[in-house]
């Protein structure tokens, strides 16, 4: 029986060395989770024997459990590299089949899909016109230009000098955009009238529509606070480039009449020209946001994370990919940072969680176990040789 016990010990120690060797080999593999062999003793089933009389017949490898502890996070220069700080797995699509990974080394293919080194596509919540939906799909980032947006609201915060006499004029200009994204210069002028209010007029590229001036007037109380803060409607202009007729509201809320020089405090408009994609960033909630040449940003999608009741029940497919099984339970999908899921860090990856120092010590221990089990076989062989030599 000692032969069987020794052989089972050799097998168990060999498996341990295999697992440790695999851990060491993957010490630099992004997202790798180390394995840990579990052993159990083996007893032969026999009738009539009580526990004190039983002699074990060796050891057995009962399971090899992966350790899903957090690995260190290392920064990179790629904004699409993602590290999960906490629980969760990236969902990858392989021609419709879903696998899971902790390796967040991603880049774009020639169709704009976010992929890994095996050309599996990252999945998440897709976006349309900058609005992230609740629909899961393969994340595809469009490199097309943003369509222009015609200016519809102009907001100005001014101070008009209370010490100026009737006939005093102050003007300011800002760029606005038509429906084709072409820029025009909107000039607004403020003229002090004899009665004290200020008449407001406007021109676009120095053109003033006939009979449209003034567009309104501003009155202030004795403390210099604007009494007519409602938006004024600017006249309609028809650009010569074929764009639609343009008009906008002029919001002067916050304008004051104090005894200091006339000046512009705030100046805003909500239009923009076409924009080309310059770069991509990913927030800790997984939202992929495009940055464009017209100073605009647009949400392009959101990474989804999957969690499982029993991650150790996942089946390892290699290439840092797992698939679910009945032991793992179904996937639970949500965004990063919700439901106990980890948050994402862009331009970073999660290192392997292998502790090399610990692995090397475990390797020495497994080697000693192998040598000790080999010695039991050698001893049993010597005993048998002694019996065979009796006369």
Automatic annotation (TrEMBL):
Q: Would you tell me the Gene Ontology cellular component terms?
A: bacterial-type flagellum basal body; bacterial-type flagellum hook; cytosol
Q: Name one Pfam family in it.
A: LlgE_F_G_D1
**What is one Gene Ontology biological process annotated in the Swiss-Prot or TrEMBL record?**
bacterial-type flagellum-dependent swarming motility
Question: Gene3D superfamilies of this UniProt entry?
Answer: Flagellar hook protein FlgE
Domain of life of the organism in this record?
Bacteria
Q: Where is the Flagellar basal body rod protein N-terminal domain?
A: 6-33
General function of this protein: A flexible structure which links the flagellar filament to the drive apparatus in the basal body.
Q: What is this protein called?
A: Flagellar hook protein FlgE
Q: Say which species the protein is native to.
A: Candidatus Accumulibacter affinis
